[in-house]
Amino acid sequence: MFELDKWQEIYSTVRKNKLRTFLTGFAVAWGIFMLIILLGSGKGLENGVTDQFRGGANNGIWISSGMTSKEFKGLQAGRRIRFTNEDYNLLKASVRDHEYLSSRMFLGNIITSYKNEYGSFYLSPCHPDYGYIKEVEMIHGRFLNNLDINEFRKVAVIGEKVKQDLFKGADSIAMEKYININGVLFKVIGVFRDFGRDDSEQRRIYIPISTAQRVFSGQNVISQISMTTGDASVEEVDMMVDQTRNLLAKRHTFDTEDQRAVSIWNKSEDFRRFQGLFMGIRLFIWIVGIGTIIAGIVGVSNIMMISVKERTKEIGVRKALGATPFSIVSLILREAIVITGFSGYIGLVLGIGLLEIISGNLPETDFFKSPEANFSIAVGATILLIVAGTLAGLFPARKAARIKPIEALRDE
Amino acid sequence: MINIRNIHKSYTNGQNNLHVLKGINLDIEEGEMISIMGPSGSGKSTLLNIFGILDNYDQGEYLLDGKKIQHLNERKAALLRNRMLGFVFQSFNLVSFKNAMENVALPLYYQKVPRRKRNKIALEYLDRLGLKDWAHHLPSELSGGQKQRVAIARALITNPKVILADEPTGALDSVTSQEMMDLLTEINKTGITMIIVTHELDIARRTQKTIRIIDGMIQEIVVNEGGSQKSEGRSEVRSNVIASEAKQTKYEVGRDFESKEYEKVA
């Protein structure tokens, strides 16, 4: 396989037919180039859209209260549904198979200060489980725990941006310091980072929901309940959604068909839908890409066919001089593989190069971000090239092997 | 060296069955130099192809150096051609994109001789044929005579037992043709059996025997008195045997047929 001699033999034939070899190779290089560009763009689209899903576990279910839109049991439409701690307790006790469950209050942006530094940050009272649902990453300290809830502790977990804004210079350590939130002092017990889609996720302060109810609203009202479904199957998740809706409908007396009384966003469903979409896009790209490459292969095969025809005499001479059919087949096959392999590799490098340039210079948009061709694509493409080369050479090689020296050598 | 008995060969082309060789018997001794003549379509090239294991035969028996040649697969045939036989063609059949040296070295490539070594051997052969200075020229840069000498060097490089030449002078002028025959005669003297297919009488005349084929059968075998110096007696005896089998009268027919040319050339 790696005898230098055979490569020199191929090199000498390729060198003697530069233009033909170039044109042949170009078709393949173009095919691979297009495949890489398509795959890279598809990946870019996928990256962009996937990014929209960041900032929370992908198996999350988000339950928000709304207004009834249907009459039910004598109650008029347009009635506002309010969640309270009882709803939270009910779901926590009754929904089967949930993993994490938390309620939240929406308090909006609140002026917060530390010494002379002020800022307006989004205050988010919640349960300890929310840290898991939102997938926040702690850089310092810890997230909220059950003791914080039970003892109504005035503690806060702040985002990295919050820390940067409030704790500057000599006061750059935030832990154990007291920040003033709307006139109430809270002790910082942790700093987190959130890989959510933008800065706003980092400009947040989490405090225990029990403390917030007592300090800011004096009620037991909550705004939203969220949970994760663990590794429940699609059907199980659907059952959990149904069960949640039924429980809440019964407690608040609304029609289970009334989608606006309580809205339940099943993120895993959306995520799954997008995954299906990208699977489809990827499949489509491979089909188009492979189609382009097949055109290249047919080109190589065609030109090799002509080449074999042109070289009929030469092959006849080789056979007369003692070339075995195998050596002829391997000569043609190698030539095809070398041409497709080499030019395909050039296409691969050019394609990846272009993607790098695009990735480096194109401004990121919501739905298109860092197009890339990863290692597995490169490996796949390489395997594809070798297979393609073999296919391209197969028919010409068989044709060459069938050449009869007497017919080839006939003087006509 | 070559013994054939009752060789038959036909080609089928659609519904036509063309019977090309109709029972050829011939014995060629080691070191002999013979020519095969005949009008086109007489089957002389087919016979040469059978000798060269480039074509198979339908019936009969072919012994090459005592080995029976029959139903060989392509690989075995290729190996035998490579080891035993050298070919010289009318149109030289050099590989156009290889230089003279690489062309000469090609048979050794198929013997898996390392590149450096086979090129060295090729240079030696080219030197022997006076073409050392042309070793790195492409065939297109060589004259007809030079090309044929390159082809001969290529045929010689594997040290074959038999050289089969199909109209080796067909594309050459008369002076070069004679030089070529000088060369082939010289090579024959080293003990290599030489079979030349030709339609030129003065070429055939320079071999020891001329086998005349007409319509797929040996019509006569002529011993050329002025041909290559070899033990005439033996040739004559062999020729007698074969000629009688071919139910041809020797000499008489040949003389009548071509006596004038013979005298003129002589």
Topology:
The complex is a heterodimer of chains A (412) and B (266).
Chain A: H1 4-16, H2 18-52, E1 60-65, E2 83-84, H3 85-94, E3 101-104, E4 109-114, E5 117-126, H4 130-133, E6 137-141, H5 146-150, E7 155-159, H6 160-166, E8 178-181, E9 184-193, E10 204-208, H7 209-217, E11 221-222, E12 224-228, H8 234-252, E13 262-266, H9 267-310, H10 312-320, H11 325-361, H12 375-402, H13 405-409
Parallel strand pairs in A: 5-10, 7-9
Antiparallel strand pairs in A: 1-12, 1-13, 2-11, 3-12, 4-5, 4-8, 6-9, 7-10, 8-9
Helix pairs in contact in A: 1-11, 2-9, 2-11, 3-8, 9-10, 9-11, 9-12, 11-12
Chain B: E1 2-13, E2 16-28, E3 33-37, H1 44-51, E4 59-64, E5 67-68, H2 74-84, E6 85-89, H3 100-109, H4 115-128, H5 144-156, E7 162-166, H6 174-189, E8 193-197, H7 201-204, E9 209-214, E10 217-223, H8 232-245, H9 252-265
Parallel strand pairs in B: 3-8, 3-9, 6-7, 7-8
Antiparallel strand pairs in B: 1-2, 1-4, 4-5, 9-10
Helix pairs in contact in B: 3-4, 3-5, 5-6
Question: Summary?
Answer:
The complex is a heterodimer of chains A (412) and B (266). Chain A has helices at residues 4-16, 18-52, 85-94, 130-133, 146-150, 160-166, 209-217, 234-252, 267-310, 312-320, 325-361, 375-402, 405-409, and strands at 60-65, 83-84, 101-104, 109-114, 117-126, 137-141, 155-159, 178-181, 184-193, 204-208, 221-222, 224-228, 262-266. Chain A is of the alpha+beta class.
